[in-house]
Structure formats: C-alpha cells, structure tokens
C-alpha cells in the first residue's frame, strides 16, 4: 500500500485527501518510483478545480506529473533504468492516467530522466517543468537568439524565473512584468534586465513605452504570456515586427481575443505552447535534458524554491499556491509517516 493524494469531486484545496491505495507492479514501458519530492504546479490546481485544458475523466482522481525519487522496479521493455537509480519525472503524461502525489508511484519510463550527480530530491522535483517549458518555448519553438529581447508576465512564477535564467544564459534581454511591486527586487536579483510593475494606475501605453525604451525601440522577439485573457491585446503591442506572442498558460480564466485584428493585422505570430510539445517528443526532450543539465552543472540554472510542505499538508500547499504570493516553486516532500 502507498499513501496517495486523491479527490472525489472538483473544487478547492479542501477536496484533496490522503489515502492508502495498492500501488502494484509496473507494466510494459513503466517504472515504479519511490517518491521523495513532488513539484507542485498550476496545472494541478486547475485540474483539481475543473479548469484545466483536459477535464477529469473519472473519480477518485489523482494529481501530479513532476517528482524526484528512486527507481524501485522496472517493467518489461524498459532499457537503461535499474532499481536504485535516482531519477526525476517530467510532465509528459495525462493526470487521468498517472499521478505522482504519493510516496510511491508508477509512471511511464519515457517521462523519467536520470537525476544529475549532486542534485538533491527537492531540486530534482523543482527544476524540470519550469526549465523545459522555458527552453522549449524560447529556443525549440521560438528560435530566440542572442541580442533578442523577451518579455514575460507572471515573471515570479517558476516558469517566469526559469525563462529569465535561460534568456540570460543565451545572451538575450529578459524584461519581466509583475503586478506586485514587492517582487521587483527579487526579479532583478534573479537576472531580469528590466522589471515593469503593472499594478493599478499603470497604463498599457506606459508599459509599451518602457518596453520600447528597454529594447532600443525594437520590441520583444518573443512575449511569453502565462495569463491570456483580454490583456493579450496589450501584450501584442510589445512584440517586435515578425515576432511571436506565445501563450503558455491561461491564469486569467477569461476568454482570450485574437489581437491581430484589433491591432490592424501587423506581422504578428500568435501561438500556444505547452511543455508536452517537448516532453512527448524524444529528440526534443533529449536536447532539453542536455541543455538543463548543462545549466545545472555550470550553476547558471537553479530552481527557486519558495517553500516546501510535507505530503500530508497537500491541501495547505494548494491554498498557498492559490494565494499567488509565492516566488518560484512549491514542493511537497515525503515524510513516509502513517496516514493522518
């Protein structure tokens, strides 16, 4: 039996419960993992509440796609992984099929990466989702080059901070947008070249002027939008000629217009991106893993972990996530005590 987080209905953090369930043996193409740490992501809160891009298909439902631990057992047809290997799980599967909010979990072997030497479990559970998302959006898909500029909203999120680090490493200019003046210094410390606070009283025209000033009048080759909704039109004004407005999230929960018509149909590329474009394509994932591992080795990359909670505190961790006050990543750790 293994302690597993389940929920029986859609709702807030209070629907989450911890239960003992049978974990079983891994099937073909699967591994069983002893979980030591779990990355908490916005996708799980949206899945739990019924607002994710994929609906919950059955109850009780599970959560979680990012974790670190040790291989316990390997199913048939899984080369290169052995019991005892320290690994990380990257988001590459549906939460309707697998979930890692547990102290032991079965996951697809294709979603497992070796944990780099010297990487502890909390780091191993916090690094892959943000950095693979940033790498895939900015480099694999966006083609960002040295000397370009990238503008990103929700900049204090784990993905936003990873995008800042990636941009700095490849010689591009990261311009961070944040609604909270209290987060400005933290973003500058993490490497943002410019931080624009977009709180009450700040107009879209003022933001656009700040971005033009920061980018030498060119605008951003890529604007990374994690919010979507009606504000997307204002973000489109920040994109350089023939640049890309890339939507990587929908935190606003509001309908999203197509901005090109309202702006007079400029040379503007608009596309969505999810990290599954990278993690479900083996060659892209191989390149992403090499890029992120290199950054970890050099010290250029490190996940910013705001706070850790024990697995039994999962509801409290989700309340903290929903409050939007954190900077970086929230991580669950496994204490392996009895179900409370």
UniProtKB/TrEMBL annotation:
Q: Looking at the keywords, is NADP present?
A: yes
Q: Which CDD domains match?
A: MDR2 (cd08268)
Entry keyword annotation includes Nucleus: no
Membrane-crossing residues?
A: none
| InterPro entries, per the entry | ADH-like_N, ER, GroES-like_sf, NAD(P)-bd_dom_sf
- Listed SMART domains: PKS_ER
Q: Which UniProt keywords apply?
A: NADP, Oxidoreductase
Q: Locate the Enoyl reductase (ER) domain: which residues?
A: 11-332
* Protein's recorded name: Zinc-dependent alcohol dehydrogenase family protein
